[in-house]
Amino acid sequence: MEPLLKIKDLVTRFYTEDGVVHAVNGISYQMDASETLGVVGESGCGKSVHALSIMRLITSPPGKIEGGEILFDGRDLLKLTSNEMRHIRGAEIAMVFQDPMTSLNPVFTVGFQISEALMLHRAMNKKEAREQAGELLTLVGIPAARQRLDDYPHQFSGGMRQRAMIAMALSCDPKLLIADEPTTALDVTIQAQIVNLVKRLQEDLGMAVMWITHDLGVVAELARNINVMYAGYIVERGNVKQIYKYPSHPYTNGLLGSLPRLNEAPGTKLVSIPGLPPDLVALPRGCPFAARCTYVVDQCIEEMPPLQKIGAQEHYVACWRWEDVRRRAA
Amino acid sequence: MGTEKKPLVQVRQLKKYFPIYRGAVIQRHVGDIKAVDGVTFDIFQGETLGLVGETGSGKTTVGRTILYLYEPTDGSIIFDGVDLVTLKENELRKVRARMQMIFQDPYASLNPRMTVGSIVSAPMEVHGLLKGKERSRRVDELLEMVGLNPEFVNRYPHEFSGGQRQRIGIARALALNPDLVVCDEPISSLDVSIQAQVVNLLEELQNMLGLTYLFIAHDLSMVRHISDRMAVMYLGKIVELADRDEIYLRPLHPYTQALMSAVPVPDPELAESRRRIILEGDIPSPANPPPGCNFNTRCPFVKDICIQAEPEFIEIQPNHWAACHFAGDFIHT
């Protein structure tokens, strides 16, 4: 089966006064039609920029997609005209953003904002669109949805706003839903509600979901596959269970070690990763993680390791010493 | 922990209401935001008490009121045997030197126009401690203690990363050799790998200096990691308080149970097998909390009595407190 999304050597850079920011540095992967992919990394690792590149929402200047291919359903999104792209955005690939307050327009009602997309992409008239908007709000679990169509965003709570954003994203039956840190601004009990909702919707509607987050816990709850990103590279990729059990990149291993476990013994010390992520304006020549890595050898400083398949399972790692990392982690 | 625990802070029936006014010219007092609505707990010498709760549960207000940054509406705060409510302004100032705070946002809590040196020495300046050479020696010592190079004293906050700024904030909090440090979400604005660095530092400093922490956060797994005991807040009240393992293994309040089960665990196999309690709805407004037990609008076990009567916060088992009419029923489940 053809993958739904296939990214090849994507490079996105920003030309700023302080120099060229190497945000995404040649990443390649693919996603199947009903896959849930977790994209994990810290601030500045390029996870959001890569998603915005897929949507072609990089502001230019200063940003520029400098190379690569983004094949979606067989078409290269980077070769489409902006008019063609507009038909993809919202209709085939939808995105939910982190902050539900700033991504909803405060001066329009929630109902109008949802029906707007329906009128635009599905050529519905006002009445049909309103009817459908009510159904969508019910679908995402807003009580008495029809009465709340005329509410403004400020009358909704944070969790409800995020539900409304999801309703809007689902309005045109997208094939791919990109959720960029959708629960970071929410409390844990509300986060659990949203995670549950997206899982349920995915099962019912059969779409692919890309969930971008820094929270390895959330990924464990909902994703089948994971991309771990660092300084604009995918450093490890594969099945979630496989990677959490046998992390083979020192960064993934470090991230998992820096999280407290709910079943840890008292007095356990967290394993922290020393140092800071590199400056994306002046990336080192070799592996960007070398400066913080305890496994570092000369080769790491000289040469960036390729993302290579290890073992029989779908598991890819970009590390020269993955065998040692994996052995020690296991 | 020794067998004999001495409370450093005793909080009794603490209330903090923020008044709501209406009217442009003549302001009428129309109600109160009951941010903290009668909480009682102790913080023992040398321990870390974790305070968790969702946005709007009043956990930050508790922290700030203990430091007397807010004047309490009612109740008392006994710090090392002295009730802060009875103190005069200048007496209070002396006690305040013994309790310090670490803030959430390392970008907003450091003055961008002050050098690191002047930020860290500011508390000594205010309290008139150490002069000239001695003071700068102390600043160097503090910076070293939090893992920063003392040569950075003349740099400005913008030259540092988030994690390093948080270290500057910690050095400032330690400048006066405090007994109590209130850490208000000190790691929630940091990246995961940096969070562990800061948490490890806080633990080292506690061992080295015998500090007592009130650690406020919404990240349950991190609070559980650092705390000896944990208190869970909901809508201005503490609903449960117990040892960290006890509260995790045997939560007696339905809200704690839901909260614990909502924490995502970084283990896909465990995540699959775990039973999760998904709460309906949102936290109600603290201006108009529901009658009876304030959790009754979201509680999966709600009965008539929960709407009629407010449950008392009582010791259900030794050192395990909870405020639920049916907490006793959960002991063996």
Helix content of chain A: 25-40%
Number of helices of chain B: 11
Give the beta-strand count of chain B: 12
- Tell me the β content of chain A: 15-25%
SSE run of chain B: EEEHEEHEHHHEHEHEEHHHHEE
Extended strand count of chain A? 12
Instruction: List the chains of the largest interface with their residue counts.
Output: A-B, 47 and 42 residues
Strand content of chain B: 15-25%
Amino- and carboxy-terminal Cα gap of chain A: 34 Å
What does this structure look like?
The complex is a heterodimer of chains A (330) and B (333). Chain A is globular. The two termini of chain A are 34 Å apart. In chain A, the strands form 2 sheets. Chain A has an 8-stranded mixed sheet with strand order 6-7-8-3-9-10-12-11, with helices on both faces. The mean pLDDT of chain A is 89. With 330 residues, chain A is an alpha/beta fold. Chain A contains 12 helices and 12 strands. In chain A, α5 crosses α6 (158-170). Chain B is an alpha/beta fold. Helices cover 32% and strands 24% of the residues of chain B. Chain B contains 11 helices and 12 strands. Chain B has helices spanning 59-66, 89-96, 116-127, 132-145, 162-174, 192-209, 220-226, 244-249, 254-262, 268-273, 304-308; strands at residues 7-22, 28-44, 48-52, 74-79, 82-83, 99-102, 180-184, 212-217, 229-234, 237-243, 314-317, 320-322. Chain B has an 8-stranded mixed sheet with strand order 6-7-8-3-9-10-12-11, sandwiched between helices. In chain B, a hairpin with a 2-residue loop joins β11 (314-317) and β12 (320-322). In chain B, α4 packs across α5. The model of chain B has no long low-confidence stretch (mean pLDDT 90). The A-B interface holds A 42-43, 157-160, 187-193, 195-196, 214-221, 240-241, 244-245, 254-262, 264, 266, 268-274, 276-277 and B 54-55, 161, 163, 191-197, 199-200, 203, 218, 220-222, 224-225, 244-245, 248, 258-271, 276, 278-279, 282-283.
